[in-house]
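Example 9 (inverse folding). The structure is encoded as follows.
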């Protein structure tokens, strides 16, 4: 549906635009105000719009999703209320990963060096067993390694390594994550 070239910009087809309008109506009528426990219903709605959704996924009703067809949610991951999944490009969230409330995953930016500020999209990949704490902002093109923890209110500009606790603005690895 989307023609993406991360070097020269991105454009959205008429079909993509129509799909987003339809998604917005469905989101408002069938997703946003669905009761909190109806995770299965929201998984069904997302799959109807092309999202790849594993088993046991919990997406809460107040999550804002720009384009479901650009997301992959692996088994048992969860996305908390108020998260913004700005999926102009692909977003993959690994198995048993928690995306807390207020997190923003943003795959789109603009080339400020060119007239008209053309859109650039870059994918976001978040590994398995990751916890992205509340109000974190993750920039386009970032990958977060398996088992990482991203501290609350961090701003993630660069890839974060596996099994590390990372935090700050800009986000940096702080210490190894050791499971008890």
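The amino acid assigned to each position is listed next.
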């Amino acid at each position: 549906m989307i023609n993406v070239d991360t070097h020269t910009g991105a454009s959205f087809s008429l079909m993509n635009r129509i799909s987003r309008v339809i998604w917005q109506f469905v989101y408002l009528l069938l997703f946003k105000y669905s009761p909190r426990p109806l995770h299965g219903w929201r998984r069904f709605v997302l799959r109807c719009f092309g999202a790849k959704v594993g088993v046991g996924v919990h997406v809460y009703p107040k999550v804002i999703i720009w384009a479901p067809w650009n997301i992959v949610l692996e088994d048992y991951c969860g996305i908390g209320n108020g998260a913004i999944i700005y999926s102009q490009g692909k977003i993959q969230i690994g198995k048993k990963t928690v995306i807390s409330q207020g997190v923003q995953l943003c795959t789109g930016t603009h080339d400020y060096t060119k007239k008209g500020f053309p859109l650039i999209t870059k994918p976001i990949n978040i590994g398995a067993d990751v916890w992205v704490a509340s109000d974190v902002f993750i920039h386009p093109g970032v990958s977060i390694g398996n088992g990482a923890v991203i501290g609350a209110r961090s701003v993630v500009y660069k890839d974060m390594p596996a099994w590390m606790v990372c935090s700050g603005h800009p986000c940096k690895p702080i210490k190894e994550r050791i499971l008890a």
